[in-house]
Specification:
There is one protein chain. This protein is mainly alpha-helical. It has one domain (3-140). The chain has helices at 3-33, 41-75, 82-109, 117-123, 126-140. The protein is elongated.
């Protein structure tokens, strides 16, 4: 593996770590936000936190994760590997989860309460399951 690939791999891992941190924290914020009175001080604080987390960390980290990952896979001639296809499917689902959470951030910003706190407690586990699958596929490369 070239030094360039090692740099890309490092950047990919750092971006993925940031994306995952945001994907774990954002629904946790929503758990608490869902029970706050719309328009109240604490609700306004949660709106700011959610928007900044989504736009300042989660979305840029998602984009960088995907760009660095595809670039790395191309450089390492892995685009035809079955494990990578499975990983990309899980990344697609993670991006879908990201999109669902982003839509809920927008609804909270309009003082809507789209789902009860319990929903966000459950959806908080989805990124964890996808994370486990992604990491296992990358490390084990089972096919």
């Amino acid at each position: 593996m070239s030094d360039w690939s090692l740099w890309l791999k490092s950047l990919h891992i750092m971006a993925f770590a940031a994306w995952m941190a945001a994907m774990w924290y954002l629904p946790r914020l929503m758990v608490y936000h869902a029970d706050k009175v719309a328009g109240g001080d604490s609700s306004e604080t949660f709106k700011i936190m959610e928007r900044r987390l989504l736009k300042g960390i989660a979305t840029p980290a998602m984009i960088l994760t995907i760009v660095f990952g595809l670039w790395l896979a191309y450089l390492q001639n892995q685009l035809g590997d079955g494990w990578l296809h499975a990983k990309l499917l899980l990344v697609f689902f993670m991006a879908g989860c990201h999109g669902v959470l982003a839509a809920h951030v927008k609804k909270f910003a309009r003082d809507e309460r789209p789902k009860p706190a319990r929903f966000y407690r459950v959806i908080n586990e989805v990124p964890t399951l996808l994370f486990v699958g992604i990491v296992l596929l990358v490390i084990l490369k089972p096919f």
